[in-house]
Amino acid sequence: MRSMRPPLPEGPYLIVGLARSGAAAARMLLPYGEVLAADRAHPEPPPGVEAHLGSDGVQLLERVRCVVKSPGVPNEAPAIATARERGVPVLGELELAWRLLPNRFVAVTGTNGKTTTSELLGAVYREAGLTVAVAGNVGTPLSSLVGVVDESAVIVCEVSSFQAEDSEAFAPETALLLNLEEDHLDRHGSFDAYREAKLRMFASQTGEHVAAAPPRFRLPGDGRRVSFGEPETDLWLRDGLLGWGEQQLIAAADIRLRGAHNLENAMGAAAAALAGGVAPEAVRRGLHTFPGVPHRLEEVGTVGGVLYVNDSKATNVASARRGIEAFDGGVHAILGGSLKGGGFGGLRGVVASRCRACYLIGEAAERLENDLAGAAPLRRCGDLESAMRAASSAASPGEVVLLSPACASFDQFRDYEERGERFRALIPRA
C-alpha cells in the first residue's frame, strides 16, 4: 500500500542553495507558485526563477510562505534560522518531491553502502521485470522525477543524513538501514544528532510499511520489522549461504560484489526486496550479476601486475576501513582530503594488517600521520598526483594501489567523483 502524502505547502517558495538538488527543487515547484532562490555563490539559476545570487536570502523571507533547504545548506544558515524563528515552514527537497510523487518508495540509508545498495536494488527490480527509478543522494535529484517518471515505477531513493534531517512526514513503503557509524560530525555536531537524522525516515511509517535493518538497531515508527545478517534473522546467513525463511537464496561466494561489507549490503538489499514482494529468483539474479558502482571499490585496471582500485567514495573512516579489508594484504593506500570531524584511529588495525604503506594527501595529512603513527610506513605526499607516483613506484606485482581516502574531497576537488576520475587518469600506462 502506498503512503498517503500530505499536501504541498502553499507558495511563494524560497529555495536556499542552488546546487543540484536546490535547482531541481526550483524547477519542480515552478508549476505550483512563484519561486525565489538565494545562493551565496553565483550558480546559473533555472529559467523562471527569481534568483538572488551572492545573498543569504534573509531579506526575501517576507515574500514567501515556505522555505526549501538544499541538503548542503546547514541549519545555522541565516535564512533557515530566521525562517524557523518566524514560524515559516522549512522543508527539504526530498520531502517535497515525495509529496508530489505517488510512486511506491524504497528508501536506503546508512553511513556506508547507500549508493551501492540503491543501485543493486535497482538491478534487482529490473531483473523482476519491474519499472524502477533510482534517485536521491545517488546523484539524480528526486525532484527531477516529478512529472516525468511513470506512476507505476518503483522509486529506490538513497537518503543521506543531510536530506533526512529536513523531512517531516516522509514515510517510504520500505525503509532500509544498513549501518550507523560516526560521520558528518562537522555538520550534525554529535553522533546522537547524526543518528536521529538517519532514523527520521522510519518515524512516520505505519504497520503497512516495511522497516528493514540489522537486529542490533532499534527503530522509531510502526513499520513491520525485517532483520538481516545473522543465522536466525529473516534474511539469514548460515555456513556461507543466504536464505529467506525456509528457502536457500544464494551462496555468499556467488555474489559478485567484493568484500565483507558488500555482503552486508547485499543482505540488506535482498531483505528489502523480498519483504516488498520481489520474487526470490529475481533477487538471486541481481545479486549474482550486479558489478558495483563507479568510485566504490572500482577495479580500474592492472598495470605491471599491480591492481588499481578507485574507492574515492570512501569519505569516512568506516568506509575506508572496509575498502582496505576487501584485500588480503599488499595494499598501498592513498588516504586524506578535507576533514569532517573525528579522528582516524579506527584505521590503525586494518592499516597495520593489510597495508604496505600509506600515502597521505590534503589537509587531513597531519592528523592521519599522528593517528596512524607506527601502524605502517607513512609518506606525506601533499596531493593525489604525488601520492600516485609514490605508490606506483613502490607497488610490486600482486599488490594493490587503493584510493580509499577516509575524507571528503573539498580541499582539492569539486567532489569525490572528480577525485576518482583524477585517480583513473593518473594510473600509469602499461
Taken as a percent bin, the fraction of beta residues is 15-25%
Number of helices: 14
Largest β sheet strand count, sense and barrel closure: 6 strands, parallel
Overall 3D geometry? globular
Structure, described:
With 430 residues, the chain is an alpha/beta fold. The chain has 14 helices and 20 strands. The strands form four sheets. A six-stranded parallel β-sheet has the order 7-8-6-9-10-11, sandwiched between helices. A six-stranded mixed β-sheet has the order 15-16-20-17-18-19, sandwiched between helices. α11 links the parallel β17 and β18. α4 packs across α8, α4 crosses α9 and α13 crosses α14.
Condensed summary:
This protein has 14 helices and 20 strands. It is of the alpha/beta class and about 425 residues long.
Describe this protein with a few key phrases:
six-stranded parallel β-sheet; six-stranded mixed β-sheet; 430 residues; globular; alpha/beta
Layout of helices and strands, plus pairs?
Blueprint: E1 13-16, H1 20-29, E2 35-39, E3 50-53, E4 66-69, H2 78-85, E5 90-92, H3 93-100, E6 104-109, H4 114-127, E7 132-136, E8 154-158, H5 161-164, E9 174-177, H6 185-188, H7 191-203, E10 210-213, E11 224-227, E12 235-238, E13 241-244, E14 247-251, H8 260-275, H9 280-289, E15 298-303, E16 306-310, H10 317-325, E17 331-336, H11 348-354, E18 355-361, H12 365-371, E19 378-382, H13 384-394, E20 400-403, H14 416-426
Parallel strand pairs: 1-2, 1-4, 2-3, 4-5, 6-8, 6-9, 7-8, 9-10, 10-11, 16-20, 17-18, 17-20, 18-19
Antiparallel strand pairs: 12-13, 13-14, 15-16
Helix pairs in contact: 4-8, 4-9, 8-9, 13-14
